[in-house]
Amino acid sequence: MRRTDAAGADTLHGPAPRAPVHFAGAIPDNAGPAPTPPSSGSTMPTPRVGDALLCYCRAGFEPELAAELTERAALTGFAGYARTERGSGYVEFMSDDAAQLSRALPFPQLIFARQKLLRFADLRGLPAHDRITPLLAALEASGASKPFGALQVEHPESDETKPLAALARSFGNALRPALRKAGWLTPQDGDHRQRLHVVFLAGDRVLLAAANPHDSSEWSSGIPRLRTHPSAPSRSALKLEEALLTLLDHDERQALVRDNMQAADLGAAPGGWTWVLMRNGMKVTSVDNGPLQQALLDSGRVDHLRADGFSWQPKRRLDWMVCDMVEQPRRVAERMATWMREEWCRYAIFNLKLPMKKRWDETRLCLELFERQAGRPLTVRARQLYHDREEITVLALPAD
């Protein structure tokens, strides 16, 4: 992939609330095989407008996202196939009715997707001296409805596309007024109309895509911009902060994350997740044989128990239990199910560390095992967060 001068030569002349979602469970074995893409010896058909879902993911997890999209599409009765390259940070799912498929696969239910878009144009060979003119022409030819309510110029996060960040910023500054002049963008940003995404894959290649503001991530490239607080014991605090921000909507955070709630942090040391709970006003029992940051102990809101997080149980029901223990994911899922079955807590957030291979299969198995062994109706949401690594984060709430 060639690098392009960030400045380019483009000139002017040339959070929404998320509804609660129940995890769909494992894909049944009888869902049927997914359609296969054309063989390498055949000609790949050019998709028509709106014939591809475009989803971002963590670089290296393209096979997991492709498998998830393929199986979920088959379950909902849609033909198609996934197309991607390892390390690219995105997956395209080709379908004859991608718009309808997008409606059948709500973004909050997707685990490995950071963002979900409906791609409607793939522009290649864009001239560096004027990318705006062919982009406007592509919009006119696309049949898309005017105007869009907002614009995001971005790139999937990968080693190859990181050099495009400056280009995306500068191009967005030039493109925004040009779109407004041509009637393609509302005078003020809002979430009442589709959002336009201009996705750089190279200096001369751009994808055009649309997003429903209420069925997609609000953040550019699907990445929430969080910073490590200097007093946080570890960077793992960002994982729990992101989980509370993305797995709960605004109203749920107001109702479920409150002062003086009682919480337990299993496998707490050095205290990153405990710190987040304490910062949200909770009183925390931190369970770990390892040491905690002294500032947490001095706060008066943290009780450190030197015990095994897999065997400890509370004497009375707590509001929250969180767990980021490094352990086999099935063992963690089983222990978390025990907590919910015995009603030792009302709400839970936990991480499942995934194996190096068959990570989508392990994800399905663990979530299915957790829901089955919990033995009561739950609302379960799972996501590979930006601050997660080889893991996913799971939220469990009592079902309404």
UniProtKB/TrEMBL annotation:
Annotated compartments: Cytoplasm
Source species, domain of life: Bacteria
Region ranges (Disordered): 1-44
Active site as annotated: K353 (proton acceptor)
Chief location bin: cytoplasm
InterPro entries tied to this protein: RlmM_FDX, RlmM_THUMP-like, RNA_MeTrfase_FtsJ_dom, rRNA_MeTrfase_M, SAM-dependent_MTases_sf
Record EC number: 2.1.1.186
Catalytic reaction list: cytidine(2498) in 23S rRNA + S-adenosyl-L-methionine = 2'-O-methylcytidine(2498) in 23S rRNA + S-adenosyl-L-homocysteine + H(+)
Family: Belongs to the class I-like SAM-binding methyltransferase superfamily. RNA methyltransferase RlmE family. RlmM subfamily.
The protein's name: Ribosomal RNA large subunit methyltransferase M
